[in-house]
Predict the 3D structure of the following.
Amino acid sequence: MSSFKKKQKKIAALSKSITVSEERGCIVLRGEADDWSTVVKAGRIAVDRKKYYGVVNNIRLKGFEQSIRLPAEHDDCYDGAKPDVLIIGGGLVGCAAARELARYRLDVMLVEKGSDVAAGQSSRNGGAVHVGINYSPSSQKHRYNHEGNKMFTQLAADLDFPFERTGHLMLIGAKWEKILINVLLLNAKRLKIDGARYVNRSELLEIEPYAPSWAYGALYMPSGGFTSPYKMTVALAENAVANGAKICLNTAVLGMETEDGRIRSVQTNRGRIIPRIVINASGVYADVIAEMAGDRTFTIHPRKGTDIVLDKKVGRYIRTTEVKSPITVIGDGQKLSLKKRIEMIRFALSHENTSKGVAVIHTVDKNMIIGPNNLETPDREDITTDRETTEMIIREQMQAAQQIASSDVIAYFSGVRSPTYEEDFQVRKGIFCENILEAAGIQSPGATAAPAIAKDLARWTVEYLEQSGPVEKNTAFQPIRKGVPHLNEMSESERDALIKQNPDYGQIVCRCEEISKGEILDALRSPLPVYTLDAVKRRCRPGMGRCQGAFCSPSVLQILAEKRDCSVEEIRKSGEQSTILLEKTKGKSV
Amino acid sequence: MKELVCIVCPNGCKIIIDDNGDILNAKCNRGIVFATEEATSPKRTVCSTVATTFSDFPVLPVRSSAEINKIDIPACMNALNNVLLDRRVGRGEIIIKDVLGSGVDIISTSSMQYTYCDVETPDDGSKDNA
Amino acid sequence: MNYDVTVIGGGPAGLAAAIAANKENASVLLVEREARLGGILKQCIHDGFGLVTFGEKLTGPEYCERYIDELLQTDVSVKLLTFVTRIEKNADGFAIHFVNREGAAHVQTRAIVLATGCRERTAKQVFIHGTRPSGVFTAGTAQYYVNLMGELPVKRCVILGSGDIGLIMARRLTMEGAEVIGVYEAKPEPSGLPRNLYQCLDDFGIPLHLSHTVTRVFGDERLTAVEIAQVDKNMRPIANTEKIIECDGLILSVGLIPENELAESIDVAIDRRTKGPICDQKYMTMEKGVFCAGNALHVNDLVDYVTLSAVEAGRNSAYLTNKPRALVHVVAEEGILYTVPSVLDVNEPVSDVTLYFRASRELRNAMLTLRVDGRAVFQKKYSVLRPPEMERLKLNFAQYGITTDSEVSLSLKEVE
């Protein structure tokens, strides 16, 4: 029986109402299912990385309709714009691509439906800069992660965003689990990942003094690190704008007009745009956008994860990023049969293991983040949190971070990742559409890979545009960007000197994170000023601390209103509908 | 029978007014006076704010100099809504004299006149957090 | 600059401590992070303050301005809009590092009074789930908007938590024209004072729902609804009791936490029940020279008690000696949530100690018993005790011959 027939049979066993076909080099699923897990299962069964471009899973979930969060704005301010490049999506990949393309004398336009860049998964992840030790050598994940990881030191220095290469640890609980480490070390050699090594408990304690008591040893990967994914996105975006790129927020792509395998125009809520080439960096909607261009060969199946942020007080208990090995069962690890052990190792190394395991991460702001979990969801924009999940994560993580208590929780958030069924990136030129580039299926290790992905996207764009004339380098390109200064990390004399120049640096607005009025004003003076509470919070942290903005949001609101020269009622949390203050209590009749 | 919580002191006694109008459970005379008043004509101190023309002090806290009839509170709030203060008053100054003909004044409960700052305060109207 | 005493925080505790230390001829610096003195009382425009200290019913601004007026008559140095970034222990006491609009600098001080107040528990700390819309405010923040900025943050809201600020905001918002649908409290008993329940809710017909909590919030951008559920004894939501209430705001009054990040940075021991520093009868923490007063020490329900404790802390901070301490714990036993102070220094006078305590649950006809080495040495009967209401007790420990070897404990038991 052919592999196609086998898949057909397996899927038929799953549900009678699903049809399987081969179309344009893709395996296509249609029909309706009663529950989401059937949809995902069918999609997984259909995967054949060698024979097909990918799985196009069009199985509908009964009763489910995706509600797309669209901006409230409706005007024609971009109508008729003819950029050389239109980037769809202001996440890490889109912003990194915009910056790369700003190295050329091109008209680069980026549209983002959110009210700020990094509105999706780029602001909703733990910020680990991955090592990528478990990827297959032929995967795009390996290629871009490996290259991206190496770019971080320079990029973070150029763009002034936080990055620390502290190393990652995978902890094991028993001697036999070293087998997994040895397998991974062999893979590391194949992947040319430097420095990874086994450390025993006493070496582990030197790296991570508060490692859990059950940890027998660990795989130590010094090339791992952490960054602030939203600060990184903002840095890339600001530098792109400073070098001439245009970033249009609150702008959503609603449709495309195509002809003869070419995108002729792109319809948005702010007018029709006529680009020469389009870059699809639209995250959870990547397959929808590809479909508009007639270039869809893949399916995004949204995967939700919740992360929990703990107070700085416990931040000191973690220096690196720690994850429990996927085969470690705390307490019962010794009792498993050999067969079960082999099974677990096999699973840990297989493509089916989509979970990276819940991690404990030290953040750039010296907090501790624990999470995320994994939940397949039909809703691409489901960023809700729930009690059961956060309680589960806390319970599970108390094993790895034994010092934490639920009273240390200061915040939690959910993000939706955008994997394809192939569980690999889809970074490629258009197959059925000549003027689109796809950057799809970008999820973990997307933040690490983004700078490398952007390089390819820029190179392919230039190659394409050069077909109709030369593309010149932007000789004025300035790769250096200065971020908002962090006064609380400075020495007293440095700080004093800065305050003497600008007294606003001496006026503390956010007491938990010690952020001054001057720092907030700096964030609003950037090339991409965003006058919302959330944007200020992301750029310089007021409201991210333990009081969660209870003390500082009135002041931040007033600073925003004053700077934008509007009333405080006009300031929003993020989108146009997210009002904060509704009306004046007094003087209505005056 | 009516049950009410005495509010003249922090003790918060649960006072009962029975059907004959007798007051039970009050631990002090002030409580008896309070309960009698609550049963006949309840009174409250009104605490609110009035608008000003100053961006660094957009509203000024005020209160009634004595208690007013509870039923007059909405009318009193209305009177306060129509005030726009254009001078920096001190604490205790009368903002509305004899509000609603009640014989009670609305007075300022905060001074707008402090000049105790030894650090230069920015004059841009922004205030710090509270 | 050198000072005998540096008071951190210019709210009611800091003001009283600075004035008290100044009366003892200490050179005093008062550091306040905001542009105006008065702390949280600036926005507490309702009345009911000062019954114990002044025998009057004052509003928050009136209460604190009486102390500001007094302070301005003294030679206490005041630094406003000044934020303490760090405290460093040294041979002569402490270096207080701060920033303000003039620069970053430090002063030297022999003693410190921490009067940094408290902060509100947030939506995340009570594990509110769902989306992340605007329209969720802590009661204190809502109070700031309404009372200091003259802005209405909600028009139709639900209040979670029956703490006093929540009750007061229920009244305040109603008076300003907003609709308060109800106050929901997860505990089976209200957290606020009876007079606030009466004057803030009953007066305006606002219902109080006990054993109910907000389990979820809805709304992509602005809050559009909340889900309410009944909770069991362990405050876990009971399935199938959920109810959706449409509203544009959720106000949280779910507890206050002393702000002690500065104290912790110099390793001052924290009492896990009060969340404030452990201190002795002189309000000195376990770190010599560091005193604490007001809501930074433990959350008070009456500002009058804040003032009284701060006067003691301020006065004692002026007389710092090198005398070694001999500490005895006052153990909170059955029925007692906590006591302040929780430690006695028997090398110092213990004849006139004011002990504050809270009952761990509502108790009727309760007998308070002070035991020394197992022997009941003092008893007092209370007709009713509720955890929201702090009790104050004057005790003369000198008559009990307490030494460092003594076991001192306080307990509450219901009696017939």
Q: What stands out?
A: The CA atoms of residues 61 and 97 of chain B lie 16 Å apart. The helical segments of chain B are 29-40, 73-81.
